[in-house]
Specification:
The protein is mostly beta strands. About 0% of the residues lie in helices and about 40% in strands.
Length: about 110
Amino acid sequence: MAIGTEARYTFSVVTEPGITGPDDPDDERDQSDPDILIVRNGVVQNQVVDGDVQGLSPDANEEIFITPDALPVGDYVMALVEFRYQDEESPEDFPERVCFDVTVTQAP
């Protein structure tokens, strides 16, 4: 991904379509958990905000954040991971394939 304007950016990763099947409110692991890291020159750019690294929330079916600081002009790599595939406690019937809608926009 190339950033052509130094600015704050909104990163949005949404599971599309959402995970089918019943959502058990007592089991957060039956839903998707996308995570994203933004890397430039080998250095992770996601900032720590209120003690949490942006892009690694446990929010079901989405990962949305605004960078607290402007990203400098340059080339970046976005590493997108479905955490449920790494989570040893994920349900056995978790889908083998999950699709995401990814958008990056300049923050207002």
